[in-house]
Amino acid sequence: MRKTRETNMSAWDELKRETAFKTNWYTIQQSDLELPDGSIGRGWHWIDFHTPAVGIIPVRADGYLLLVNQFRFTTRTRDWELPAGRVDEGETPEQGAARELREETGHRAAVWEPLGHFHPSNGSGNQKFIFFIARDLERISAIQDTNEIDDARWFAPDAVRGMLARNEIFDGMSVTGLLWYFFHLQYHAQGGTHDK
Questions:
Q1: pTM for the structure as a whole
Q2: Which residue from 51, 97, 98, 117 could staple onto 87, CB 3.0 to 4.6 Å apart?
């Protein structure tokens, strides 16, 4: 008897999985799935990321935000972005965020505030981005990752909002993190809490 959506709204059942391609960062999987209506979907390709990624919103005491400028080979674009990167094996997300902040900006933060997480392409992969707000910042070195990062610069919040409005920041992770951060500020300024 075929299942119907009325009787089974649960997750799809994976019947078979094969590895199509593997790197140190991710694996492309091919799965056969039983769908909620009982039909079989064969050869579903998806990307299995080995570790999460982190995005950091570095905020100075005066509210200025630290962004990095870099060239992206895949899109052939240069963009102002949030410091970000993948979490290395054996690191916690906060440790990975601290390392990425140091490598990409030369700063360390004394205060780390988790902001939340999101899945940028949950229809084709399980990548997870975790955001942290970094405060009480101290410059401890020059930019270490000079192959990726060309510059790190402080921007006033209104300048960043303007850059977003003019589509001058177009990296998806950075757009998401910055909009989430500005919403977070507004929400708490209006008395919102994280209580349900």
A1: 0.86
A2: 51
Q: How far apart are CA 81 and CA 66, in angstroms?
A: 9
- The CA distance from 165 to 116, in Å, is 23
Three-class DSSP category at 30: strand
Q: Give the per-residue SS3 of 33-90.
A: EECCCCCEEEEEEEEEECCCEEEEEEECCCCCEEEEEEEECCCCEEEEECCEEECCCC
Given a cut of 90, whether residue 143 has pLDDT beyond it is no
Task: Domain ranges for the chain, please list them.
Answer: 13-49, 53-189
Structure tokens at 189: 């300024």
> Do residues 69 and 79 touch, judged by C-beta distance below 8 A?
yes
**Degrees, nearest 5: CA angle 165-171-177:** 75
Closest CA to 127 of 138, 117, 136, 135: 117
pLDDT, tens only, 40-76: 999 999 999 999 999 999 999 999 999 999 999 989 9
CATH node for 53-189: 3.90.79.10
Which is nearest to 52 in space by CA: 20, 13, 92? 92
